[in-house]
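User: I'm preparing a small set of examples for a lab meeting where we compare how different chains pack in three dimensions. I only have the primary sequence for this one, and I'd like the structure in token form so I can line it up with the others. Please keep the answer compact; I'll paste it straight into my notes.
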Amino acid sequence: MATQLRPAQLPGHLERELLPVYVVHGDDPLLAMEAADHVRHAARKRGFDEREVLVVEPGFRWDAFSAATRNRGLFGERRVIDLRLPSGKPGIDGARVLEDFAAHTDPDTVLLLTLPRADRGTQSAPWFMALENVGASVAVYPLERHEMPGWIAARLARQQQRAADDVLQFLADHTEGNLLAARQEVEKLALLLPPGDLDAADVERAVADVARFDLAQLSEAWLSGDAARTLRILASLQSEGEGVPLLLWQLGEDAHALASVLTAVASGTPVQQALKAARVWGRRQPAMERAVRRVRPAVLAGLLRELAELDAIAKGVGRGDVWQRLDSLALRLCAAPAA
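Assistant: Understood. Below is the structure token output for the 339-residue chain.
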């Protein structure tokens, strides 16, 4: 039976047992690295002292993997085969070899396979399911924004430090989208500040602003009406050299989708059905729902007219500070009250 674990469950699982296969997949480098480290550490504690690293790059021969799993050392040492699959796809030969390994596991060998986020097709592939059925898979995905304060609190607890909720939120805001930097900032607090309750002023002086943002986070912020977060993301993207046209495109996409949903809802279409018709999915969906309740159609019509003017300025037609105008336009979407 397949075992599927979350990263937080892995340490407890490894205290109880060590399976012959662990498949770590996901697109957060820090969480993936730490999950793999947990497996390697648990294996060493149980006497798996040898480790062989194999990276499936162009030209990789799968018979090297087969040889590594078959050939025992002179004294029959227990070992970990650390197989890395950057493409996420083993190919026909690799799939066959991995299925064969799953069918003939060795009590003296642990396979640790790491790969990027496995989509539904990969997870339903026979080779993936075969490995999962004799071992466990660990999906490591980036933390959601609301999960960051809890994650930071747990890290602080490891170093005998505690922080109030507002301090945890401050730390989360200043390291969002950059989990490796978040870990480094938390570890820095252990060096700079004593154990126990952390003072907010001391934390603010110690922590650098290393947050990273993308268009999806910006879209979520202005649709949710979070003005402070919207301005912070815009400032961050500007400092990173992001081009205005791409931001205007995202604002236009969100505004037109919102207009479509508002029109459909006004004609009696249920909100969820209107969102689906406008192709609003994922984390953008709850933010769009809040915008539907908050924004009046008349305000949105004016915003779309100004957006066209701002697009012309960005292309060199007309005058004005395009970033300042973009801030103003984004704030109008954030602050537009419901009738």
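A couple of notes for your slides: The mean pLDDT is 88. The two ends are 55 Å apart (CA to CA).

User: Perfect, thanks.
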